Amino acid sequence: MTDLVGALDQGTTSTRFMLFDRSGSVVSTAQEEHRQIFPQPGWVEHDPNEITTRMWSVIESALDRAGVDGSALAAVGITNQRETAVVWDRSDGSPVANAIVWQDTRTAELCERLGAGAGQDRFRAKTGLPLATYFSGPKVRWLLDSRPDLSERSRRGDLAFGTIDSWVLWQLTGGAVHATDVTNASRTMLMDLVALDWDEDMLGEVGVPAPMLPEIRPSVGPFGVGIGPLEGVPVTGILGDQQAALFGQTCFDPGDAKNTYGTGCFMLLNTGTELIHSANGLLTTVGYRIGSAPAVYALEGSIAIAGALVQWLRDNLGIIETSAQIEALAASVPDNGDVYFVPAFSGLFAPHWRADARGAVVGMTRFTTKAHLARAALEATAFQTREVLDAMKADSGVALTELRVDGGMVGNELLMQFQADVLGVPVVRPLVSETTALGAAYAAGLGVGLWDSPDDLRANWGEDRRWLPSPEGAESLFARWQQAVQRTFDWV
Questions:
Q1: How confident is the model over 448-470, as pLDDT tens digits?
Q2: Helix/strand/coil (H, E, C) string of 441-471?
Q3: Which stretches of 203-334 are assigned E, i.e. beta strand?
Q4: Over 70: is that where the pLDDT of 63 sits?
Q5: What is residue 177's three-state secondary structure?
Q6: Measured distance CA(183)–CA(296) in Å, rounded
Q7: Distances (CA, A) of 224 to 231, 293, 301, 436
Q8: pTM (whole model) above 0.85
Q9: Signed CA dihedral, 447, 452, 458, 459: sign only
Q10: Residues 159-174 pLDDT 10s
């Protein structure tokens, strides 16, 4: 068997294909951005056809850079932005509308109606999720309600719904497979967390016809066979992006935790086969399922805006020309000048779940410069992570001894040091920081026997850098952050 595994990482802002060897080292990579479409305030969309075009392009580029063709791959895994919803025509594979992205808030009124009388936690016991605009089931209902022509077609089974993993799997297999895995299904608000299957009552309550739905399968196992440049290559792993990062960080034991710093920021705590319902604003989700083994669950703290705030400073305000410049700009001042930036652009996710919140910068004076704004933007990610960590401690009773980190922002050493200071625990970056794609590759490799067990994957993990906390003054800064958060509520 060949030692190479491919991973398709279809994220919020870009599509990437990476090749890894048996040691978990990167062999080659190719990445292309896709458009962010904003039809009106609060709406965020992607063009599914553009994503497909980018997908084939990066696959071919990564194979070319490695000097191999698809036959050199033992398997391919998929990881993806999770709650983004796509609906397409089964007959020709054409999307009926743009994908509605996880950041989109157009379902706020629908979620309020669904929670009327029972509140935001109406379905939490069954799905592990609060009623929020974040999740994909209500997005599908909104689309069907907005397009009467789609309703009858959806009931007949002429239309297919899927999160992005299902869309790219359909494309990779030439329309032969309509499936998803348990991690992505757990983010729709339509799956029973215990039964690990679509729930008839939830489908009726939310208003999504069963004939639209993909088959739910384990995260590790057979999904289909590729076409085109991946002709004959088995697809044997699918994980939602944050669960893939948990897998790539080899957080296989209860109590292991990781935080991914990407467009948003997502902390997951492995709770083993025990399903823990949060009383502190966290999500209960499926961490992964390997074949027929019992599912492993996780508590998750989801933060909507992290790296996206740096992009906003770059693209909307022009404070920086490239995202990499923010660290030097933020480091040019000794502190934030008492400025706090709460990036509630899509409301606030964990642990607040306030769709009525909107972004705010507080504490500005004539003394404030763009450097203070840059520093406040970086600190916002660290403060939000602290809020999530506090909620995890309260729910699980586990006091973390360290936090494994990954994602695009972990190259920012100023942020990582501040994160350690605010949390009061060491922050550890692995040798391979892009663990989302690595997790998808690991899942695919396990699916074809390239690795025998998770123990083989643990042996691949290595530490690159560790930041130790210097928490002097951190508590007072965090208290000021909490004051700023309160000022964003009730805006909408």
A1: 999 999 989 998 888 999 999 98
A2: HHHHHHHHCCCCCHHHHHCCCCEEEEECCCC
A3: 215-217, 220-225, 234-240, 257-261, 265-272, 283-288, 296-303
A4: yes
A5: coil
A6: 10
A7: 11, 20, 32, 21
A8: yes
A9: negative
A10: 999 999 999 999 999 9
